[in-house]
Amino acid sequence: MKHSMSFKFSRRPIARYWCALLLCLTFSVRAEVLPGLEASPALLKLLTVDEVKPSEVRETLGLSARVELDQQHVARIGASVTGRITEINAMLGQAVKKGERLALLNSTELSQAQSDYLKAASQVNLRRLTVKRAERLLESGVLAEAELQERQGVLTEAEVDLRAATDRLRVMGMNEADLQRLAKERSIHSFSPVTASIAGVVIERNVAIGQVVQPADALYTVADLSQLWLVAEVPEQQAHWARQGDEVRAEVPALPGQEVSGKLIYVADMVDPETRTVTVRMALANPNRLFKPQMLATLKISKPGSQTLVVPSRAVVREGNNDYVFVQTAANHFEMRPVHLGREESQLCPLLDGLKAGDRIVVGGAFHLNNERLRSTLE
Description:
Layout: H1 13-32, E1 37-38, H2 41-44, E2 48-51, E3 54-69, E4 74-77, E5 83-88, E6 95-96, E7 101-106, H3 108-140, H4 145-171, H5 176-185, E8 191-195, E9 200-205, E10 212-213, E11 220-223, E12 227-235, E13 247-251, E14 260-267, E15 277-285, E16 296-312, E17 317-319, E18 322-330, E19 333-341, E20 348-353, E21 360-364, H6 366-378
Antiparallel strand pairs: 1-19, 2-21, 3-12, 3-16, 4-11, 5-7, 5-10, 6-9, 7-8, 9-11, 12-15, 13-14, 13-16, 14-15, 16-20, 17-18, 18-19, 19-20
Helix pairs in contact: 3-4
């Protein structure tokens, strides 16, 4: 229906005010009227129509999260003995295997420990020979039994000293093969390697040639980046949302389209008194190393929902503060109808009011249909 109205504006301010108000009311009435729209055959090919039907809608809690190292797959590696660094074999960012040498140091402490071990081993061999000789003399009646027992006691003391020297070398990083080599060759080797205790990537290096290091110093940090954590903080009031083993989803803005899913492997038993939050963690598999520690992410925890009518978000036309959808009333006839929707979740909006089950709405191409409506309105 066409409106042909003419207004004669007065020069007086009050008259101009009432004329402007009447003009606004006229256009407001026209805006509330949502006449039907007839789609051309070409436009119909761009549209997808589907029925309004129920679907399960879940409540979702979105949390700010961050990617962190899985502390179960991180090793902080130091020297097993005090010494001076003579060689560096691993650099920052280098991939290393378990047991691979990262650095080499020269240790006088290790030399002294090996010397003590060789002396203790010599004493044991000597005391064993003495005991065997005493046993033969006892059988011949030349030696008293008390003398034999005394020599056996000395042997026991020497064996204790050898075991202590052996344990000390093991603490300094020597394995069984190294001990056998030392016992066989009886030559002191004062160089001690710093080796990787796990396979991974060197993410930290705190060592330089000539540096004197001690066992308490962390020289390297090696991490297996194929396994990470996604850590988030749940507000105290919403702590009931998180349960260990719950299925969760996550999105990383730095990797668009890389939504991942997993389970909560940890939910803190205590509330942080400063932030009033509960820490939760999700295991994040990273075989291709796309995720980097300290990346920001969004962690989504969902609750089981109920069946309710939904509208695809792509079907919604937003004008002002209102939502509309196009309802098919005939084969090529559509009506723009206002709807009241809930919060979008997984590209579905719960339908609160405006439609009923079975109504056929435009779920694809609503943008084109709305453009045609606007063009017709302007004409």
